[in-house]
Amino acid sequence: MSEDAILPQAAPRSAATVDLDAKVAYLHTLLGPGDEAIETHFAWVFLAGPRALKLRKPVRRDSMDYSTIAARRHDSEEEVRLNRRLAPHVYLGTLALTHDRSGRLTIGGTGETVDWLVEMRRLDRARMLDALLTRGAAPEDALARVVGLLAEFYAREPAAISDGATLEARLRRQVAANHQALQTLEPEASAELRDSQLAFLDTHRAWIDSRAGSGCIVEAHGDLRPEHILVNDPPAVIDCLEFDRNLRILDRAEELAFLQLECARLGHAAQGLWLLHECLDRLGDRIATPMLSFYRSHRAATRAKLYAWRSLEADGGSPEEWRDRARSYLASALEDARLAAGP
Description:
With 343 residues, the protein is an alpha+beta fold. The protein contains 12 helices and 13 strands. It has 2 domains: 15-122, no CATH class; 129-341, Aminoglycoside phosphotransferase (APH), C-terminal lobe (Aminoglycoside 3'-phosphotransferase, Chain: A, domain 2, Alpha-Beta Complex), CATH 3.90.1200. The protein has helices at residues 20-28, 69-83, 129-135, 140-156, 164-182, 187-203, 205-213, 245-248, 252-265, 269-283, 289-310, 319-341; strands at residues 36-39, 43-48, 51-56, 60-61, 64-65, 91-99, 105-107, 112-121, 159-161, 217-219, 229-230, 236-237, 249-251. The strands form 4 sheets. It has a 6-stranded antiparallel sheet. The chain has a 3-stranded antiparallel sheet with strand order 9-10-13. Helix 9 (252-265) packs across helix 11 (289-310). The protein is globular. Residues 1-16 have low confidence and may be disordered.
C-alpha cells in the first residue's frame, strides 16, 4: 500500500462471514469527509482521499467471470496492465484484501487473502472530457495532448488482424449479433440497418482488405468515451474494456469514430470531429469518409444492443429507460448507415 494511505481496521470477523457485504462494509470505513463509494453493475469503487479502490463483485456473465478469488485477482491484474497503456500514472497496482487470525479485515495484511483490489490515483472529475465539454472549457491545446496520447498508442500497437477476409467475417458476425438483439425492439429499423451494413461490406471489400493489410486493426481501448478521458497534463484514458480481448479488437478509426459519436451525443459534434481527424492525420490514415460513417453506424448499433440487453436484466433499473436509449442509438446507426451508402 502507498505510504501516504493510512488504512483503519474493521471489527473482528470470522472467515465464514467475509462475504461481499462484509468487504463493502469494511471498505466504507476507509472513507472520510468528501469521499464516496460508487456501486456499478460489476464492482464497487471507493474514492478515499487521494486514492480510488475498486472491488469486483463475484458475478459471472457470458465472457465475464469474477466468480472466484483467483479470477478476480487475474482480472484486476489485467485491468492494471491494460490501462497502463493509456494511463500509466493513474493505475498504481493491485492490493490484497486479507483477514487475520482474529477475523479482522485489512489491506495488504499477512492473513488469508479474501479478495483483490485495484488501486488508482483519484482523478478530478471536473477534468474529464465530458465535464469539460459540458462547461465549454475544453481548449484545443489540452485536447491536442489527448490526440498525441491516442496517436502514439495506436501507432505502437501491433496489428491484431491483418487479413481482410478475417476482418470482413468478423464484422458480418457482429452485424448479425446486433440485429438479433435489436429485432425484438424495432424489427423494421433493425432489419434495414442490418441489410444496409451488409450491403456496404459487399460493396467495399477492397476497403476492408486495405484496413486490415495496413495494420489498422489493433487491440484498442474498447470503450473510448468522453467520460473516460482525462484532459490534463499529462492526459490519460481510463477504464478500458479489460475483461474480453475480443471486444478490444477494433480498427483504430472505428474506435475514434465512436468517440466522435459520443461527443456529438453530448451536443459537441465539432469537438468530436476535430479529435477524430486530428488523430487520423497524425497517424497518416487517409480512410474514406463513407468507411468512417459505416464504423460510426456499427458502433452505434453495438451500443444499442448493449442497452437492449440491459433492459432485460432483473437488476437493470428502469427497462423503458434502457429501451429508449437503445432506440436512440439505433436511430443514429441508421442515419450513419444511410450516409455510408451515399446518394
